[in-house]
């Protein structure tokens, strides 16, 4: 069978008809159906409409699907230059997903994305209308302290994971279902929740101290995380388990700098993942920026092949999409140049690079990241096959097609 790699680089075999090229991609397992201009696929109880204008994607298109970016702009008139830049990146296929925020960290006067439910729904529709393929539209809506949509925007309060953990999993399911229905109605299709972090350190500055863990009991964490994910799923929203391999014991904040859990992390922190993955596979797994020297050496987990392809994929059997935590967080940005971060992450097995574009802002961040990845592939630092692997996982999630 002919390798698909030449096609990834945009090379069109001379004299090969469209039907033959389509057949090659069918054999490669990338597309299962391109018999019409659109392909329909069901995932988590809803149908996604995917453009199939071409029999195969270009390298540029595949790289774009691996990038998720935050941006400024609410979609309200007059449309800001920031939003115009984002829409241009979307139209050009330079990004495959966006993350929404309700406030801007670097500029308190800047309009981020969320002002009301009605406004957010219109903004998301505008973004999707510009996209050649459906976008992942993501938020952090865990409940409690971590909620992008709040009461002031028209969103009912959802209890924190800590509060939910004191109740029954059935109640957690109901709360997540209610939240998910509202998110789905807005067009949000991915929630970076639930957290599977075990509350082994109640004073952990970004987990325990903020009520972001269901429990200090791994079995209880798994039960509530499963209930939460099932509630989102029933509402038509994708879930994301985080922060692999476990952030609950950290004594430092990865938003600010390095968090080394080598002396505090315990194997029991993997139990929620073992249980949950066997029962309710999520849409994605988010890898955190903690350093676990016995597994990742000096690298953060999010940049470690041993953690992602070893612990997560080989040991736990995860075959789906892996996304990083925000790569602009201090644990990464203070230690690595952006180019090195991207090279390490993709080489480690990451499928989606998340740049919140909030801790540090650049309206053209999507184009910059896309260009860096393309240059690395062309220079031979990242094999085209590595891009294809991630693209296939992402498109399976977006379309429900088997690889």
What does this structure look like?
The chain is of the alpha/beta class and 403 residues long. The protein has one domain (57-399): Glycoside hydrolase, family 3, N-terminal domain (TIM Barrel), CATH 3.20.20.300. 39% of the residues lie in helices and 11% in strands. The chain is built from 15 helices and twelve strands. It has helices spanning 5-8, 18-28, 59-65, 81-91, 117-130, 161-165, 169-186, 218-235, 271-279, 293-296, 305-315, 330-333, 338-348, 365-378, 384-399; strands at residues 38-43, 46-51, 67-70, 97-99, 136-139, 141-143, 146-147, 190-191, 240-244, 284-287, 321-324, 353-355. The strands form four sheets. The chain has a five-stranded parallel sheet with strand order 8-5-4-3-12. Strand 6 and strand 7 (146-147) form a beta hairpin. The longest helix has 18 residues, at 169-186. It is globular, with a radius of gyration of 20 Å.
